[in-house]
Amino acid sequence: MLKYACSDTAMDTAYHEAGHVVAGMGLGCRPEEVYIREDSSGGVRWLDWAEGQSIAQVRRELVHLVAGPLAEFLHEAEESMYTRSRWADRLDPGDWEVSWRLLSARIRRGETGDEAARCDTAEAWFLAREVCRRLTLHDAGRWDERRVRADILHQHGRADFYWVTGPFVAVREGDPSADEFEMLGDEEDSEMSFRPTGPITPPEVAPAEVLAEVVRAERWAERLLRRRWAAVTAVAEALYRSKSGSLTGKRVQTLISSADRSSRSRAKRASA
């Protein structure tokens, strides 16, 4: 699975992809390769990127997505010696020169991104809208988060797949309501299968709700990246200096582990 960046310079792209990698690994995924192309675009190839249907999983995907532009933002803020706590609370699209990098700022300006190319902006809108749709159902008592998270049939596929299948229900072989959509017989009950309940019309959600969900993800990603900023920097600088323009997943994991150990050592010495 590929996630593409759209940055102006190779260094911007290096931090963008490093943000994706560190956030993705922090959420339990493993990278196969991270790279920068000659046109300064880039991407990450994942070994086991997990898509899913639950609110929690879609939110995790959104955090991973916003972490790329956010890493660019934090790097630019660091370079310009400019910091502000809880910047997301007071974000104004025209406030700072670097604010255009944030996906929330792009959405505020009315940018939609290239949906066909799965650009970060378009994907952020898609994922945040899916979260809001699920929350609307939850508030109406029509969403069982615990069941969706536990059901293996809902642990795969893009978030909008849910509206095609609806919840799955268990049926026994020979039941007239059963079909052959998915047979998951096991040793305990080889006659058990599952069928989708059918398409569901997703509820309407307000654009302001979608934007608020993107900002929420950026706050979460900010906390994650600030805790591991040394790892982000290590990956970004190694990627930028790489003659091949790429790093293997093994190399990325080594860089992150080394940076994390150094950070813990510095923190231990500072507290001594």
Automatic annotation (TrEMBL):
Q: Which domain of life is it from?
A: Bacteria
What this protein is called in its record is Peptidase M41 domain-containing protein
**InterPro entries of this UniProt entry?**
Peptidase_M41-like (IPR037219)
State the Gene Ontology BP annotations. proteolysis
- Annotated region (Disordered) at 251-272
- Name the source organism: Urbifossiella limnaea
**A Gene Ontology MF term for this entry?**
ATP binding
